[in-house]
Amino acid sequence: MPEYLQLLFPEEKNEGRRGGKWWRRGGGAGNRIGGEEPRGGRVHFKWEVEYMFWSPDCVENVVMGINGQFPGPTIRAKAGDTIVVELTNKLPTEGVVIHWHGIRQLGTPWADGTASISQCSINPGETFHYRFKVDRAGTYFYHGHLGMQRSAGLYGSLIVDVAQGTKEPFHYDAEFNLLFSDWWHKSVHYQELGLSSNPFRWIGEPQV
C-alpha cells in the first residue's frame, strides 16, 4: 500500500495479498476478509468497471459491468462492518463514481460517490479506495452516479445483515434477492442527448 494511504488507514497493515486473494489476520472465507467480529469486521472487494457486450433481454447490447458481471457483484456484510472497495476505472473515455444508496456515510462523506459534490470522478485508468462503515441492517443497492451510468447497467445489491451475535426479530424460511431496473435498447448516449435536448425529445418507454 502507498505510504499516503497507510497514513490515512493505519489499520490496513493487517491486510495483504496472498495467492491473488485478500486476507486479514483472523482467517475467513469468500469475499469477506477475516472472521465475523462482534464489533464489526471488514469486507474487501476489488472491482474493475468496464463496458462489455451483454444480452439482458436476449438482445445484445453494450452494458457497463463490474468484473465481467451485470448486474454488479452483490456486497454482503454485517452491521458494524467496514466495507472497502478498490475500484479501478477501465472505461476508455469516461470518469466513474459509485453511490451507496441508503448508506448514511457517517464520518465518510467523501465515500458517498456523488460526482462533483463530495467526490471527484475516478478518471480512466485510475483506482480509488471506497472505505465506509455500514451501521444499519437492511437491503440496499449501489449504482453509478455520473451521467447515465446507472441506466447503462452500473448497479448491484448491497445487503447488510444484523450484527454478529444479534438475532433478527422475525422468522422466514428463505431469502431471495430480486433487483429490478428499466432497460432500453437505445444507447445511454442517445438517451442522455434526448433527455437534455431543447426542445425535449422523448426517448420512449423502456423495452424491459
Structure, described:
It comes from Fagus sylvatica. This protein has two helices and eleven strands, in the order αβββββββββββα. It is mainly beta. It has a single domain, classed as Immunoglobulin-like (Sandwich). The N terminus is likely disordered. The termini are far apart. The longest helix is centred in the C-terminal third of the chain and has 9 residues.
Q: What proportion strand?
A: 25-35%
Radius of gyration, CA atoms, in whole angstroms: 19 Å
Counted up, domains total: 1
Termini, distance in Å?
43 Å
Number of beta strands:
11
Might you state the CATH topology name?
Immunoglobulin-like
Estimate the global geometry from the Cα principal axes.
globular
CATH class: Mainly Beta
Low confidence ranges: 1-38
Order of helices and strands: HEEEEEEEEEEEH
SS-derived structural category: mainly beta
What profile does the largest beta sheet have? 5 strands, mixed
CATH superfamily: Cupredoxins -  blue copper proteins
Mean of residue pLDDT values: 77
